[in-house]
Design a protein that fits this description.
about 325 residues, mainly alpha, 17 helices, globular, about 0% strand
């Protein structure tokens, strides 16, 4: 359906040749924008029904006083299914600290939340298949889970800003909510408007970059720039992702185009993770609640983990393919 829509716009309406760079680029752009926006709207609406009663305050209450492997598994799982992005990191961080949740568990949540969410999973699967989606999800959750233990070993509490420890958020008021079908529909539709309204520009930018790569950038040029999957090429991919800012949905079309040009899977995974979880804007937002040493250790762990993930999957690409 989406492929036919792309053909209609690019080739029938604009009269471009299918084999031309412009035709290939426009077809890619139209097809992916339509596919991603339809998937976004559908999944956000459906998940809005299920998430009508799940708020940041309730997430904080669920995690209160928990520690150990079970708490980290819960933190990673909640990070994967909740819709909180980098703009929510400060109130969530403060809320988790105030609730007595260990810092390592909190950081596991903050790693998992932007990298893995149900909307990105469905969109990623619709664009590049379930195999890579499963790989991405499992590696993202593993990085978040292990990160809690690794970061906790550095005793990072001393580098949380002093004002965070002094905040007393108190218990969230328990208010009765209308749980009728109409109320859930209104909540779900409001989620669609807010989330799609916030990220549509990243979808257009991401698909636009992917379309240019797909239509105009020769495969041999991309392969030369990306390298052959060596450690150095993965490090370069991670570093290239740091200045960028996008959520998981916006970077998917770029990953699709890179894979189509023959860039190794591990390199693409490392790049995606760096853009989503290690971007400079994300770090600057987190800096408001933690000091530079903690931020540096946090960023160093993520960069190291992403490079290791990239190298591992590049080494296994012959098995995965």
């Amino acid at each position: 359906m989406f492929d036919a829509f792309g053909n209609l716009i690019a080739f029938d309406l604009f009269g471009l040749t299918p084999g031309s760079p412009a035709g290939a680029a426009l077809h890619f752009f139209v097809m992916d924008v339509a596919k991603i926006l339809v998937l976004l709207t559908t999944v956000i609406y459906l998940m809005g029904w299920l998430r009508a009663l799940l708020t940041p305050e309730k997430v904080r209450a669920m995690m209160r006083g928990r520690s150990g492997p079970g708490a980290r598994l819960m933190a990673v799982g909640l990070g994967a299914v909740t819709p909180f992005c980098s703009c929510s990191s400060i109130p969530l961080f403060i809320g988790f600290v105030e609730a007595g949740i260990p810092l390592g568990v909190t950081l596991s949540f903050l790693i998992a939340s932007p990298m893995v969410n149900q909307v990105a999973v469905v969109v990623l699967a619709g664009v590049i298949g379930w195999q890579m989606t499963l790989i991405y999800v499992l590696t993202g959750l593993t990085v978040a889970f292990v990160g809690g233990y690794v970061l906790q070993a550095f005793k990072l509490e001393r580098w949380v800003e002093d004002y965070v420890w002094k905040i007393q958020m108190g218990e969230a008021a328990q208010e009765e909510r209308d749980n009728s079908l109409r109320a859930r529909h209104d909540y779900a539709w409001n989620e669609v408007r807010q989330i799609v309204g916030r990220i549509w520009k990243y979808v257009f930018i991401g698909v636009g970059i992917g379309a240019v790569i797909h239509g105009y950038v020769p495969a041999d040029f991309v392969a030369k720039i990306a390298g052959d999957g060596s450690v150095l090429s993965v490090i370069v991919a991670v570093l290239a992702g740091v200045p960028m800012y996008s959520d998981a949905v916006g970077i998917i079309p770029v990953a699709e185009a890179l894979l189509g040009k023959g860039v190794p899977l591990g390199t693409v995974l490392a790049f995606m993770m760096a853009v989503i979880a290690l971007s400079l804007p994300e770090m600057l937002i987190l800096r408001k609640v933690v000091k530079w040493p903690l931020l540096g250790i946090f960023a160093a762990y993520l960069a190291t983990a992403f490079v290791l993930v990239g190298v591992l999957f590049n080494a296994l690409r012959s098995v995965i393919a």
